[in-house]
Each structure stands twice: as structure tokens, then as C-alpha cells.
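Justification of resources, computational component.

The compute hours requested in this renewal are based largely on the per-chain cost of generating structure records like the one below. Each record pairs the submitted sequence with a full C-alpha cell output. That output is archived, and it is also reused by downstream analysis tasks.
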Amino acid sequence: MRDGYMLDDPLYAAWKAGHRNDPADRASWWRPWQQTITDTVSRGVAVRRARIVSEPVSEYIRFEYDVTFTNLAAGEDVRWLPRARATDIALPGNDFWLIDGSVAMVHHFSGNGDFVTEEVTADAAVVKLCASAFEAVWERAIPHGDYRPA
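The structure output for this chain reads:
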């Protein structure tokens, strides 16, 4: 839900310097994370990622958009929701991953977007909020192939 994460990430720095991943050169960008997603999807698990973004988008979001083909290649389904279309959705205060609809992995970031810590919870109220927020976002969000960053 942030417009920038870990702005000192070497991949982001390389992108800012002009490097672009070549989709045809999979070996140059394929990482263990993509393999984990591919293995998960091959077991019949749907992996969905929704990104809520301010428009016009930040430079970091342009980077995320540009590298999202790697998520898609691994088997993720990715959608984008302009923040202005999320006003009436009750959103948790932090980014999260929802796992099997029963566990939320909540990520905490500093004001500058640096990763601080994560917490894992099975608290039913937290999981319910995260699940309902995600589904509301997902329903409104634009599939990656149709979204054009403003």
C-alpha cells in the first residue's frame, strides 16, 4: 500500500540507472522467490497480489510495474488499484500477506519505506479484516495487462 519500499534496494538503484530486465533472459532475473511461487501454483494454489497506488505514480511504482512481468512469469495474478478508487474500503494499516485465509503476515516499514519487522498472526479479527479488505480491493483492481500507470 506504500508508494515506495526499500529505496536503497540494489535492483531499484540499477533500474533507476537504466537497467531493464530482459523477459527473454529468464536466467538473469529468475530468483528463488519466483520458483517458490511457481511450485506453489503448480500445486493448485492461487497466488494473487494487489497493489494500491497513488496516481500519478511514484518512480518506485514505475519500477514495480516494469518488473511485474517476473511475478506473472512465476504464476502470480497481479492487479493494481488507484488509491482514489479505494477511499471507501476499510484497509488494514499495514501491508500484509494472507495465507490460506487463516494467517496474516503483517509487514512493518519505516516512514522511509525500509523494512522493519513482520508479525504473523492467526487472530480471527485481523485475518477477517485482511481478507475482506483484500477481496474488496481485488474486485475493483485492474488486471496488470490492462493497467497503465498514470
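Residues 41 and 59 are 30 Å apart (CA to CA). The chain is about 35% helix and 20% strand.
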